[in-house]
Amino acid sequence: MRPLEFLTTNELQEIIIEDLKKIKERENLEKELNFTDVVLGSEDGCYIFADSQGYHYIVSERGQKIVNKVTDDLFDIKFWAIYPIVVTISYDFSEEKSQDNDPRLVVFPKQLALLKEIDHNLFKRGEIEQNEIFKNQSNSMKNDLYLIVGIGFTNLSDF
């Protein structure tokens, strides 16, 4: 069996940055990511790189790896890199827009809208992630969120 061939870290960086440029609301999103191997004592942040084992996604905090994922799937590494940035943008947006007690009523639709700007498959994966969150909510919160994010959600441009 032939070993998998992976993109280089530079090629991976180009692809992810090209996707991030599709988010029009904020510039220089690539500064949120470090496209290099994390070394002990590195600055806090998200590190993405490729090597012979696959694509690595590492979050470092206080010099420790708190998230350490490896995949051979380009889609997975793109989602892992982009989704936390989308979440941050959506919470920033909710602080400006939300009059509601629960910011998720603004945040969740905004996340899906941003993911849809980038790629339909990222949007679908975002829906799956949100559905996992909904499973742990009270029934009344589920109903509110499903109405906004789910079946009746028709106008992403409002977010």
TrEMBL record:
This is Immunity protein 63 domain-containing protein. InterPro entries: Imm63. It comes from the Bacteria. Pfam families: Imm63. It comes from Listeria floridensis FSL S10-1187. Residues 53-131 form the Immunity protein domain.
